[in-house]
Amino acid sequence: MPGRYDRSALAVDQATRDGGSAEATQVEFRAATKRYAGAERDAVHRLELDVPAGEICVFVGPSGCGKTTAMRMVNRMVEISEGDILVGGRSVRERSPAQLRREIGYVIQQTGLYPHRTVAANIATVPRLLKWNRARIEARVEELLELVSLDAELRDRYPAQLSGGQQQRVGVARALAANPGVMLMDEPFGAVDPINRERLQNEFLRLQAEVRKTILFVTHDIDEAIKMGDRIAILREGGRLAQYATPAELLMAPADQFVEGFVGADRALKRLSLMRVSDIDLWQAPLAFPGQSTSEVRAKLDGAEISHALVIDSDRRPLGWLSEADLAADTVPKRPSTGPEPVLELDDVMRDALSDVLQAETLYAPVVDAQGRIAGVLSVEIISEFLTSADALEEEHPAPERPLAER
User: Fold this and answer.
1) 407 in a domain, yes or no?
2) Do the domain assignments include residue 230?
């Protein structure tokens, strides 16, 4: 929209001057410990990990493992007993809790919206504390409503007049209002029904692709952690770090039996849900054209990656696979006896592609590009080889760029 980016640039510049941070900042836990008086063990024990600027770190683990406590130490809602936490290279102990909470966005499960304030007034909470002028606040509210996909007409409604999903979007907008470098999210989608929860997750990942904040995200759901996290910190009881890794590494190389059990027995399938078909090296089938001499096609089969020839039309779109009966003829038929199904696309989620291949009870599936032209061939064997290779440990996509399932 005309003028939107000018207002955004102004907000970024002034937010920086007013104590906010336009740039994502690194968060470092340095033997951070929380010990409550009279407790038999630490709530969080000497937590050591770095969250790179602009990434999503998800804390996950069983109830009582200290994941929420660890996150709340960042803005001093919980005070650190020993060790330290650095935000942007500076100890959180050097700033007052009030100052930290104006610099760090915070989203909780039940949104925490003020029921007596309108949507616009809720979003403007921190800018007003920072004494922004009215015009600047209005511009920021307008920008954020658009950013979180809320209709402008909702600005004058009260939280009770919104759906749960809309309330959660307002909570995110409020957390972003002063353009913080770090956001804390405490089970933000946990109270939303499953369908809207998935939509909110997807919307938030799309938003993160645009704003690129450093985010500490707490959940009890390992599937949500794998979907949302660039890195995942699995905590065990007593607030001890069991493993800190990318989702791919966590799924394919769990540190111990505790992590393996927590991730689940279907971890190979979960790994495939993070990939698109385009992320794997496809095989190439011998190609044939209608009317071509079958003797030429048979010559191509010697030493080929796939022992079956795929017939394509003049636009390189798959028509089907040649059978032995087809090859016994003098020329390639216009319609092979075996169809090309299933035909996959490069942008398909790998887990869904595997399901299609298995359901069709076939060895191979042609893969096409956005124009429907042949790009290669996928097989169960390729997927199996990938999952047992070192490549399976590597993360192809940051969280906002992974495939997103839509219901």
Assistant:
1) no
2) yes
Q: Does the pLDDT value for residue 267 go beyond 90?
A: yes
Distance CA 190, CA 18 (A): 33
Residue with tokens 């921190």, as numbered in its chain: 126
Instruction: Give the least confident one: 72-76, 177-181, 195-199, 360-364.
Output: 195-199
Residue 93 to residues 79, 87, 217: CA-CA distances in angstroms?
Answer: 9, 10, 22
- Give the pairing of strands 240-245 and 82-87: unpaired
**Same domain, yes or no, for 282 and 269?**
no
pLDDT tens digits for range 179-229: 999 999 999 887 677 777 888 899 899 899 989 999 999 999 999 999 999
Q: Can you give the CATH number for the domain in which 325 is found?
A: 3.10.580.10
Q: What is the pLDDT of residues 123-173, one digit of tens each?
A: 999 999 889 999 999 999 999 999 888 998 999 999 899 988 888 889 899
- Enclosing domain of residue 351: 278-391
| Cβ–Cβ under 8 Å, residues 207 and 172 | yes
* Biggest CA pair distance of the chain: 88
Start-to-end Cα distance in the chain = 29
Task: Give the C-alpha separation, 205 to 400, whole Å.
Answer: 5
Residue at 61: amino acid letter: G
Boundary of a domain, candidates 225, 246, 273: 273
* CA–CA separation, 237 and 69 (whole Å): 13
- Distances from the Cα of 175 to the Cαs of 84, 102, 246, 308, 382, in angstroms? 24, 9, 26, 56, 44
Tell the residue number behind the tokens 């000018």, with chain if given: 6
Find, among 152, 186, 144, the residue nearest to 169 by Cα: 144
Residues 370 and 289 in one domain: yes
